[in-house]
Amino acid sequence: MNNLLISQFSNKKTNITMLTSAKMINIFMSEHKNKVI
């Protein structure tokens, strides 16, 4: 039971980290496009 909870928690953390980095990449790319134009 405990291991399952820990794995679910780490999966959520990983998903949040991936979402955050994806948002950061999108922001960076849009800023870069604006600078190029």
What does this structure look like?
The protein has 37 residues and is mainly alpha-helical. The protein is built from 1 helix and no strands.
Outline:
The chain has 37 residues and is mostly helical. It is built from 1 helix and no strands.
- Please report the total strand number as a whole number: 0
Provide the helix percentage.
over 70%
- Poorly predicted parts: none
Number of helices: 1
Span from first to last CA?
Answer: 54 Å
Average predicted local confidence, pLDDT:
85
Main sheet properties:
none
Beta fraction: under 5%
Question: What does the overall shape look like?
Answer: rod-shaped
Q: Structural class, please?
A: mainly alpha
Radius of gyration: 16 Å
**What is the ordering of alpha helices and beta strands?**
H
Question: How is this fold's topology laid out?
Answer:
Elements: H1 2-36
Structural key phrases:
37 residues, mainly alpha
